[in-house]
Design a protein that fits this description.
The structure is a homodimer of 379-residue chains. Chain A has eleven helices and 20 strands. Chain A has helices at 50-57, 110-113, 148-151, 156-170, 184-196, 207-215, 229-240, 254-268, 312-318, 321-333, 355-361, and strands at 8-16, 21-30, 38-47, 61-68, 72-76, 93-94, 98-106, 119-123, 131-135, 140-141, 176-179, 200-204, 220-223, 244-247, 250-252, 282-286, 291-297, 305-309, 345-347, 370-372. In chain A, the strands form four sheets. In chain A, strands 3, 7, 8, 9, 10, 19 and 20 form a seven-stranded mixed β-sheet that branches.
């Protein structure tokens, strides 16, 4: 019987104490043999996504980070953020949304056994660990030729980008706006839109970011720091007819500016004056929080508008399972093209606890992305 | 043949010139005989709703208002608001959403003829006039004993209040929050909620406003100027389970505070910690703009939330005609109870152009409401 279960393994843990201290550590955890419908995956690659950082570092101030024995990383959580942390205080939490690795043990079900020795991708938390038990039905076998690094980011970014286009279709819009558009996710969205013929208006914050997108074929790329930004945005919205935006930034005026420019573009084509503005529904979804400050809306967009939160998990729960499976299959089929991810650094579990390394991956710089390889740097 | 068509009549008009001047005047307009499916109504009562003031006075600064011959009222529109007026410049526009009066002429259709001499209510703009032609199918015959003043506000406030409760049911919520809750509309909403057993959390801005609501049986009335407002709001939301709010104010922090308090109330009952907040959808609709300043959202309410515009017209377009008819019938049935309106002043068409009177009805003071009676003060 092929059982590669080592019996125990290291798992990264994040804890915030009621005394206001963050503590990131490696815990040695027992690994039970997989149930009949489960597989045990040796994790070989797991990305650090912005959505992981919230749980990993909480609201801690990394300028106070220190290394301690264990190894451990500790840092102070400023008092004003402790209320937001109330739900997780004094609970040691595993981290890591997604990743890929080799199936080293499998339950007795045929579907589980068929995966033994295969390279698979998975999602579900606790992937910053040497081993992770998953349902056989939930893993995605990687296509031939793909490495664990190729498959590490199979879920969050690809499905989020596909989810944006699916939401656009489901809610009756015909073109999209996207902010922080030069991100890994933004590049995937641009590639999907080019392939599917969906007009996309990209908003970035520097000429360098703009170049990343024009290099892969983007036609509408606007720099929000340019003095004529709102006028050019209105032109692009008029041209594309985009009435749905996805905003990764959240704070500040941008979401409201997008709604206002959508309204101005619609009014260029309007007939009779209506004091309630255009009757066409304009929508922006905030799906990230690069700016955690307040969102400010100057309500210059009539009465037919919406702003809201958007989360991949909720989206996947809402659509039929067969549709979700179709999206996952598309990710596997286009893993080396549309959904290719690039990493600027690969680190081991222990390195993730180094204050200098933590400061680097916490910067969320466009074009920089860290990959945790739990097989690296451990005896 | 009973034809009470006088052939012409006065109609109030609002004009904003590209030179930045508001001009409100009375125009003498021709009145054609009604088509077979139409009736001609002699308007006897038409309220000045906040939703009328936007069209009537635009963005004009009433401290610059002057009376002129005609009669006319003129006032300056500050330069910074002229962009928002672009769609209506140099167009003379009739005003007045709704009103009631007597059918003095009717088309040849039996349904129109049946209304002759009856007191009816109508909606559709241009009600600040001596006469208004309407489709027979669109008017609401008033119940016996009701006066034109009783029926003047049959549509906007009653249907908006009923629309809020209908929206709550359609979107799967079980209780409501309402701001500026001591308004005429807010009192109607409270009466509906008491009758229908819907928990309602009222938010007001003074103890006097609170008393208006407790006097009609409200149990949850919060003063947003109180130092413990957010804590008490959270308690009320916890108790009622309200996850839908309607906000008449729009600007400032209140809409965001409501979403934040909904989240805090939900988290009191939450199980395991989720970094994305409660999965329960929290929604606030902005349906008015008592504060036209920016809306500020401190996003402390997870990822499952929405903020949007809400307009009676769009709501009525979305629901089946039979359902809309049921709502209208309920208004007629409960005209003297649930949907009773009180007016603090009745003015004629010419008085509406007096700068002092205009300043008074433009104050939008809670408990004050003006009624235009076009039969008053004209030879």
């Amino acid at each position: 019987m092929a059982n590669g279960n080592p019996g125990s393994g290291l798992q990264l843990r994040s804890l915030i104490t009621s005394a206001g201290e963050l503590e990131v550590s490696l815990a040695k955890v027992d690994i039970p043999d997989p149930a009949p419908d489960e597989v045990l995956v040796r994790v070989e690659a797991s990305p650090i996504n912005p959505s992981d950082l919230g749980l990993l570092l909480g609201a801690a101030d990394l300028s106070t980070a220190k290394a301690a024995d264990g190894p451990r990383l500790t840092a102070k959580v400023p008092q004003q953020f402790m209320r937001a942390m109330a739900g997780r205080l004094d609970q040691s939490m595993p981290v890591g949304n997604e990743g890929a690795g080799t199936v080293v043990a499998a339950g007795s079900d045929a579907a589980a056994q068929a995966l033994l020795g295969k390279l698979v991708a998975g999602i579900g938390g606790a992937m910053y660990a040497q081993y992770r038990t998953l349902k056989a039905a939930d893993v995605l076998p990687l296509p031939p030729g793909a490495t664990a690094a190729d498959g590490a980011s199979c879920f969050v970014n690809p499905l989020t980008a596909l989810g944006m286009v699916a939401t656009m279709r489901a809610e009756g819009h015909k073109a999209l706006v996207h902010t922080a558009a030069a991100s890994n996710l933004g590049q995937m969205l641009q590639k999907i839109c080019l392939k599917d013929g969906v007009p996309l208006v990209n908003i970035v914050r520097s000429p360098e970011q703009a170049k990343i997108l024009t290099d892969i074929g983007a036609t509408h790329v606007l720099d929000s720091t340019a003095p004529d930004f709102v006028a050019r945005l209105t032109d692009a919205l008029d041209e594309t007819g985009a009435t749905l935006g996805f905003d990764a930034i959240g704070g500040g005026k941008l979401a409201g500016q997008i709604l206002g420019a959508m309204e101005a573009a619609l009014n260029r084509k309007a007939g009779a004056y209506s004091r309630y503005g255009s009757a066409t529904h304009k929508q922006v979804y905030i799906y990230g929080g690069l700016d955690t400050g307040p969102t400010e809306l100057v309500r210059s967009f009539g009465m037919s508008w919406g702003l809201g939160g958007w989360l991949l998990t909720y989206f996947l729960m809402k659509i039929p399972p067969a549709e979700a499976q179709k999206l996952r299959q598309r990710v596997a089929d286009e893993l080396k093209t549309t959904f290719a991810s690039h990493y600027t650094a690969e680190i081991g579990l222990a390195e993730a606890l180094d204050p200098k390394v933590a400061a680097a991956y916490n910067r969320k710089t466009t074009g920089e992305k860290y990959l945790i390889n739990p097989t690296k740097g451990l005896a």
